[in-house]
Design a protein that fits this description.
The chain has 84 residues and is an alpha+beta fold. It contains four helices and three strands; from the N terminus they run H-E-H-H-E-E-H. Helix 2 packs across helix 3.
Amino acid sequence: MPQQRSDLAVQQEQTPSALPQNETLYTISEVAKRLRVDTTTVRRWISIGVLDAVILPHSGKRQAYRIRERTLDKLLQASSPSGN
């Protein structure tokens, strides 16, 4: 599992204006399916700083997040048995 990050690092990831126009963003459900875990696990990883996420404005009871493709790729590479 990746190391925890500081609050400052998480805040830097939360700047939607810094997103390139062509960057792919995934929902919590899409990431959970790809990693074969529950959505609660993905949300927990985001809340403790293990997984970087972009925080979106919301009005519901749950915070809306998007995960960058490059962040997901890094996580998958770090957890692969060969380390590649």
